[in-house]
């Protein structure tokens, strides 16, 4: 039986379906149901499947299932990695859509991690003023985070995710068995975002992860179902109330990301520090900022750090240049009027946006992060 999360966005609402193992009749039925909800989808006969080479075997099975259900399908596999989320990568997809004679009734099916979802999603958003997008996120990070919420983007050589759009999918299909082939390091990165959801919104989820570290790392389906479904539900709840990052609520999802993005940028995207690891470092640093502001006691940062360590995530980035991290932070597009804004915990499950962090305080915490 599939676990359902509804992302309630009026006429752009959609279902996230979660299964331990795909049954293709169920997938096709869900796909058709979701297509029927949109004008362009109702007459869809063509599906462009976008994936990367690592995930291609998983994607091919879905493409075959669609072909056997009389959809004309084409599959395009980009190179794995952040490098594909580029203007060149986007051109490639636009070219493939033209070759396929795609029109507004062609659905884009993104099968892969966050890179594929963001890239295929942006191609879908920009081609013919918007094609229906269906997502099958295959990395844990994509399942708990990037496939929920409708943000799609590619990178500019000078700025990550700067060329983007809001383009909600018509449906999301999550198959937990896909995680079996995911490299363990990527699994741990996805768990960092789960920890984030716990800290910002849900102490029970945080405690569940604390108690089930070994089960989660061993891909126990019950433990995974709980954390993936809860994460989707929590993120969907935020997105529903602030779809376009206008009321400020969606900003709470940036906990751990102010420091995280900066250390990730300085380490080099696609380099030594994948996003989830950078977020773990960021969450520990930002929890420490909250402690030094007197917002939380020592227990909270200690628990966040201990959980990250138990999950095999780094909590420091020794050797990074403090100056570069500071510069990266002030360039972050989320700042207003030159002040670094943070999302900091008030207690487990509650965070608040603040620009009260002084330069001295920030420097002293960052010094600990980068100390060799
Ligand atoms: N749109 C959003 O709201 C949002 C949110 C968070 C992150 N993101 C973006 O997501 C991207 C990171 O996503 P990611 O961590 O999934 O990276 P990714 O897509 O690069 O996937 C990580 C690696 O795992 C491989 N992989 C994925 N699924 C696999 C599977 N089932 N089996 C084997 N290998 C598999 C991929 O080929 C890749 O090599 C970043 O570009 C980030 O900006 C977007
Ligand atoms: Zn993130």
TrEMBL record:
Which catalysed reactions does the entry list for this protein?
Answer: 7-phospho-2-dehydro-3-deoxy-D-arabino-heptonate = 3-dehydroquinate + phosphate
Keyword annotations = Amino-acid biosynthesis, Aromatic amino acid biosynthesis, Cobalt, Cytoplasm, Lyase, Metal-binding, NAD, Nucleotide-binding, Zinc
Give me any GO biological process, just one. amino acid biosynthetic process
Residues that coordinate or bind Zn(2+) = 193, 257, 275
Alphabetized InterPro entries for the sequence: Dehydroquinate_synthase, DHQ_synth_AroB, DHQ_synth_fam, DHQS/DOIS_N, DHQS_C
Name the coenzymes or cofactors required: Co(2+); Zn(2+); NAD(+)
Looking at the record's lineage, which domain of life comes first? Answer: Bacteria
Please classify the protein's predominant subcellular localization into one broad category: cytoplasm
Q: In which pathway does it act?
A: Metabolic intermediate biosynthesis; chorismate biosynthesis; chorismate from D-erythrose 4-phosphate and phosphoenolpyruvate: step 2/7
3-dehydroquinate synthase N-terminal domain boundaries: 76-188
Which EC class is this protein assigned?
lyase
GO cellular component assignments = cytoplasm
Q: Which GO molecular function annotation, any one, does this entry have?
A: 3-dehydroquinate synthase activity
Pfam families associated with the record: DHQ_synthase, DHQS_C
Q: How is the cofactor bound?
A: Binds 1 divalent metal cation per subunit. Can use either Co(2+) or Zn(2+).
Cellular localisation: Cytoplasm
Family the entry assigns: Belongs to the sugar phosphate cyclases superfamily. Dehydroquinate synthase family.
Q: What does this protein do?
A: Catalyzes the conversion of 3-deoxy-D-arabino-heptulosonate 7-phosphate (DAHP) to dehydroquinate (DHQ).
Q: What HAMAP family would the database entry show?
A: DHQ_synthase (MF_00110)
Name recorded for this polypeptide: 3-dehydroquinate synthase
Instruction: Give the originating organism.
Output: Isosphaera pallida (strain ATCC 43644 / DSM 9630 / IS1B)
């Amino acid at each position: 039986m599939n676990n359902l999360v509804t992302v309630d966005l009026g006429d752009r609402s959609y279902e996230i379906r979660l299964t331990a193992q795909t049954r293709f009749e169920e997938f096709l039925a869900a796909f058709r149901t979701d297509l029927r909800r949109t004008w362009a989808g109702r007459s869809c006969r063509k599906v462009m499947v976008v994936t990367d080479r690592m995930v291609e075997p998983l994607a091919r099975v879905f493409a075959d299932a669609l072909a056997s259900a009389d959809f004309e399908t084409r599959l395009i596999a980009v190179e794995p990695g952040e490098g594909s989320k580029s203007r060149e990568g986007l051109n490639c997809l636009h070219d493939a859509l033209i070759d396929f004679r795609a029109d507004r009734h062609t659905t884009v099916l993104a099968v892969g991690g966050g890179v594929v979802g963001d890239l295929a999603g942006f191609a879908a958003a920009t081609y013919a003023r918007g094609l229906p997008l269906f997502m099958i996120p295959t990395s844990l990070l994509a399942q708990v985070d990037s496939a929920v919420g409708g943000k799609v983007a590619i990178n500019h050589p000078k700025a990550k995710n700067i060329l983007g759009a809001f383009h909600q999918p018509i449906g999301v299909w999550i198959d937990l068995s896909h995680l079996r082939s995911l490299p363990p390091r990527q699994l741990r990165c996805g768990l960092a975002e789960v920890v984030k959801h716990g800290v910002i919104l849900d102490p029970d989820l945080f405690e569940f992860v604390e108690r089930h570290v070994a089960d989660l790392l061993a891909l126990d389906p019950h433990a995974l179902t709980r954390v993936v479904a809860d994460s989707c539900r929590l993120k969907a709840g935020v997105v529903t109330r602030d779809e376009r990052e206008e009321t400020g609520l969606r900003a709470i999802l940036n906990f751990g990301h102010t420091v995280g993005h900066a250390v990730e940028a300085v380490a080099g995207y696609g380099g030594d520090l994948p996003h989830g690891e950078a977020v773990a470092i960021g969450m520990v640093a930002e929890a420490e900022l909250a402690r030094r502001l007197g917002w939380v006691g020592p227990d909270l940062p200690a628990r966040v750090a201990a959980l990250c360590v138990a999950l095999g995530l780094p909590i420091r980035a020794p050797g990074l240049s403090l100056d570069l991290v500071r510069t990266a932070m002030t360039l972050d597009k989320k700042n207003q009027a030159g002040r670094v804004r943070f999302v900091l915990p008030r207690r487990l499950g509650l965070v608040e946006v603040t620009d009260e962090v002084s330069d001295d305080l920030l420097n002293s915490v960052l010094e600990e992060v980068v100390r060799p």
